[in-house]
Amino acid sequence: MSGNTGGLAGRLAGRTAIVTGGASGFGAGIVRRFLADGARVVIADIDGDAARALADTLGDQAIAVAVDVASAASVAAMAAALTERGIEPGVLVNNAGVGQGPTPLAELDEDRFDRIAAVNMKSIYLTARAFVPGMQARGGGVILNMGSTAAVRPRPGLTWYNASKGWVVTATRSMAAELAPWRIRVNCLNPVAGDTPMLATFMGGDSPEARDRMLATIPLGRLSTPEDLGHAASYLCSDQAAMLTGVALEVDGGRCL
């Protein structure tokens, strides 16, 4: 792939990226970092108003799109709308995800299970179906999937969420192997819990005591931040990581040691 390889500044210059779930949390951190590093970014989020509000603060290189990544029709409509505007993404970040509250594995509501599977897993299939053919035709691209430390060191009470993120890691490696002949790199980030809207869900409610218990499991003694994920994502999607594919990078302060 072409691009700036001379340093950190502008290392995504000339790239167009889609970031799903880009209006908040880790996604917004990735959006901001990509823009700072020279990319044009499509902020794709189920909350279209939030995506537009963020784009309005970030300038002309940020484009807002409302999409439900768990819906085949919605993803296809997004891809068609971008094509009509002449937008051909070379970078796809599958960041959108949902969590679950601490629940015994036999007691999780079936509707919640289905939503976890649809957003955390099926969405990656749907976006691949929509955007991989274009990357193949153009001779390359980068896909970055959002996993979790839950895939590596699962915690009790989150079994079906843990399993969905284990699926993401395996899918990433298989996609990397299959798409390498087209010079499409596929990697994954495994963040530890971050100070994002999803944190309270995982902890079963936010409180100083719950945060202390979470922090006690992280050797570096802090939660991950959107900025942490933005820096890691920018690197993996740049030519500086040109030899990296099939990687599941832990951004976890030592959680998985």
Mean pLDDT: 94
H and E order = EHEHEHEHEHEHHHE
**Class derived from helix and strand content:** alpha/beta
Strand content: 5-15%
What best-fitting shape do the alpha-carbon axes yield? globular
Largest sheet descriptor:
7 strands, parallel
As residue ranges, the low-confidence spans are: 1-7
Numbering strands along the chain, what is their spatial order in the largest sheet? 3-2-1-4-5-6-7
Number of helices: 8
Could you provide a short overview of the structure?
This protein has 257 residues and is of the alpha/beta class. Helices cover 43% and strands 15% of the residues.
Protein model, in words:
Helices cover 43% and strands 15% of the residues. A seven-stranded parallel beta sheet has the order 3-2-1-4-5-6-7, sandwiched between helices. It has 257 residues and is of the alpha/beta class. Mean pLDDT is 94; it is low at 1-7. It has helices spanning 25-36, 48-58, 72-84, 110-138, 159-179, 199-203, 208-215, 226-236; strands at residues 16-20, 40-45, 62-66, 91-94, 141-146, 184-191, 248-251.
